[in-house]
Write a structure and sequence with these properties.
240 residues, seven-stranded antiparallel β-sheet, two-stranded antiparallel ribbon
């Protein structure tokens, strides 16, 4: 029998819209987490049949705890994606959008400020940095690799592990308020860098600070971001 899990408070809309292509599977951050946690429990049980109930529960709670911390830090969107490449490979990963405070000032200067701050961070493992134009305004783009720990308890094994991931982040200032959106896509499928950057560019181009006026394609999911009301040219052409 699965344990009971706590419910979450409803979220409120903020003036941020985004478009997701087919293959993205958003987590409803405003929904009761109980069904999601039960689904996670069942999924882990199927993938790791040797795991104990305690290990499965620990894995589910670990994810929910991390999700809760990210929401507290301004997370307004979280989704997984699974897309087929032209050579029938599978590109999988995560997509996150945060809304964060920024210093008041010209929103067009914000991307340059972001890149300047990153250059002083010795821990950053950026492969590429640039400023690119998007329909919603200029964005600071950072592509980086890092090694992340993988707790064994989350997967029903004794030993901890690690995995290398690649991420691309777009930092974009809201035009009328001292806030910014940070869109990050992450994948372990490092062999599909070109496809990964293409899909990241597509998602970034779907960010908007005004509601869409035209009916979207049926293959696209247009959503308004929700979150805590108090939380305050193609990449390849740039990087070659």
């Amino acid at each position: 029998m699965r344990p009971d899990f706590p419910a979450s408070a409803p979220a409120e809309p903020i003036p941020l819209w985004y478009v997701l292509p087919d293959g993205f599977h958003p987590v409803d951050l405003a929904a009761d987490p109980q069904p999601r946690m039960e689904e996670s429990f069942d999924r882990l049980s199927a993938v790791h049949p040797s795991a104990t109930t305690d290990q499965l529960v620990a894995g589910v709670l670990s994810f929910e705890s991390a999700l809760g911390r990210m929401v507290a830090d301004g997370l307004v969107h979280f989704s997984s994606f699974a897309l087929r490449t032209e050579d029938d490979g599978l590109l999988t990963g995560l997509c996150q959008i945060f809304v964060v405070d920024r210093a008041p000032g010209d929103p067009n200067l914000y991307p340059r400020q972001v890149l300047k701050a990153q250059r002083t961070d010795d821990a950053a493992s950026a492969l590429h940095r640039a400023i690119v134009p998007l329909p919603c305004g200029p964005a600071a783009v950072t592509v980086s690799d890092r090694v992340v720990p993988v707790p064994g308890v989350c997967f029903g094994v004794a030993a901890d592990g690690a995995t290398e991931v690649r991420s691309v982040t777009f930092d974009i200032a809201f035009p009328g308020t001292p806030e910014a959106a940070a869109l990050t896509l992450t994948t372990e499928a490092l062999e599909y860098e070109e496809e990964f950057l293409e899909i990241a560019t597509l998602v970034a181009a779907g960010i908007s600070f005004t509601p869409p006026s035209d009916a979207p394609s049926p293959d696209l999911d247009v959503s308004v971001a929700t979150g805590d009301p108090n939380v305050g040219e193609d990449i390849r052409s740039v990087f070659g």
